[in-house]
Amino acid sequence: MRIVLDESKCSSLGMCESVAPEVFEVGDDGALSVLNPTPPEDQRALMEEAVAACPTNALSIED
Asked: What InterPro entries does its record include (predicted)?
């Protein structure tokens, strides 16, 4: 599983960070970072929740 961020769509609202702060972080510069782009499979449900929480559809999961 790989988390993909489309930076052109991301507004750095932090919805994903609120769901999974160990994977996503909005930095001091206001830009979103994916801290762990390949989280373990046992976190799939949490990653799906984070992707669904994104109001700009900037996140996706690739297998």
From this structure: 3Fe4S_ferredoxin, 4Fe4S_Fe-S-bd, Fe-S_cluster_ET
